[in-house]
Structure formats: structure tokens, C-alpha cells
Amino acid sequence: MSTDLRFVCSCGAVTGVLRGVTPKTVNRVICSCSGCQRYVRALGRDEALLDEHDGTDIIQASPASFELKTGHEQVACLRQTRKGALRWYTRCCGTPIANTMDTPGVPFMGFLVGTLRDAGGPPSSDVIGPVLARINGSYDPADAKRLRATTGALVPMLFRFSRMLLGWRLRGAHKRWALDWQTPIEREVQITGAVP
Ligand SMILES: [Zn+2]
Ligand SMILES: [Zn+2]
After folding, report:
1. pTM for the complete prediction?
2. What is the pLDDT of residues 159-173, one digit of tens each?
3. Strands 109-112 and 3-8
4. Ligand 2: distance of its center to the CA of 87 in Å?
5. What's the farthest any 2 CA atoms get from each other in the chain?
6. Domain extent listing, the chain
7. In this structure, are residues 111 and 53 in contact, taking their beta carbons and an 8 Å threshold?
């Protein structure tokens, strides 16, 4: 059975739905790269969205499974380096929406788990699956394996994600790579240092 997860920004103006979520339809990782950290910090959401390793819990999904329902005019996008990921957020209240690449050739959207809602609260592992790998962070070697922060977790996750991406692309997700937003996309280019 799959679940439709709701996206609702803090003020309620922007809403959307991520359809058909199961552990098999999304790829869950925790990313501790400086770009993800600056994204949530720039929006003032670090307390809610960064874990103890300054990581963000993300599920990567096909753009074809996400539909923005209301608040299209509030959608904005920031970018931290000239070729960096596009980091979408709501202008009304600064809620992160998703990360995407700036190319339809890599059609995925990375949603922050803490911004998605199941019936009562944030989605559980039963719905979105376990964290498959922790990337770009430093972890205590004694804990790394348990936390899936090793090469042994990274390689299978990347292999799995590549296959998912290919499948999404074959099913036409790249035609909807930048959401199904009809309004012009505003991009703020914020050059604030190198992102690894
Ligand atoms: Zn809002
Ligand atoms: Zn990251």
C-alpha cells in the first residue's frame, strides 16, 4: 500500500502532495553537506531540520509524483553556487520545498522529511523506508556502520538510486523535472562560498 504525503508550508499558503510513496518509490538519505546545511540555515530552519550531525533527512522522489496544489506564486528558488543544486522554498514563510538539479537529465526532487506530513505527523519509516546511507558527514567510526555512514552503505544506495533515476526518466519524469509549476521561476543566485 502506498501513501500520499502532504507538503504544507508553515503559514499554509503553499500546499502540495507527494503521491504513491512506499519504501520502494523513494530513496532516503541523510546529507550533511554544507550546501544542505546552508539551505536550511538561510531559511532559519536548522533547529527543526538538522540532526545532531548537521544532517538533513531527505527522500528523493520522481518529480512526476509531486503536485503543487496551492501557492504557486509563493515559490522561490535559491542557489548557492553557479552550478549548484536548485533549492526551492516558499517566499511566504521560508519553508524549504525540495532540492533539484538544474537539468532535466537528472530528474529527481529531494524533499526534507521534516516538511512532509502523513495523516498525523512526519512520515514513519514504514512509509518512506529506513535511512539507506549518511553522506558528507563525519561520524564516529564506532557508530558509522550502525548509522549506515560507510562506503558499504553508500555504494548500494548510489546503485539503487541510479536505477530509480533511470526508471523515472524512462517514464517521462524529466519532462516535469522542475515541478509542474506554471509560474515563472525566480532564481536568486547567492554565491556564499564553495559547496563540496
Ligand atoms: Zn508559507
Ligand atoms: Zn547535501
Report:
1. 0.89
2. 999 999 999 999 988
3. unpaired
4. 11
5. 49
6. 3-189
7. no
Residue 4: alpha-carbon gap to chain centroid: 16
**32 Cα to the center of ligand 2, angstroms:** 5
135 CA from centroid of ligand 2 (Å): 8
Cell (9 digits) for 108: 529527481
Answer for the pair 99, 110: CB distance below 8 angstroms, yes or no. yes
How much is the pLDDT for 191? Answer: 36
Instruction: Name the CATH topology of 3-189.
Output: 2.170.150
Ligand closest to CA 71: 1
Write the DSSP assignment of 110-166 as a string of letters: EEEGGGEE-SSSSPPHHHH----EEES----HHHHTTTT-SHHHHHHHHHHHHHHHH
Residues in the chain, overall count = 196
- Asked if residue 55 lies in contact with residue 137, where contact means CB atoms within 8 angstroms, the answer is yes
Angle among Cα 73, 171, 61 to the nearest 5 degrees reads 55
Q: Which ligand is nearest to the CA of 43?
A: 1
The pLDDT-based confidence of 177 (bands split at 50, 70, 90) is low
Question: pLDDT tens digits for 5-42?
Answer: 999 999 999 999 999 999 999 999 999 999 999 999 98
**Strand, helix or coil for residue 4:** strand
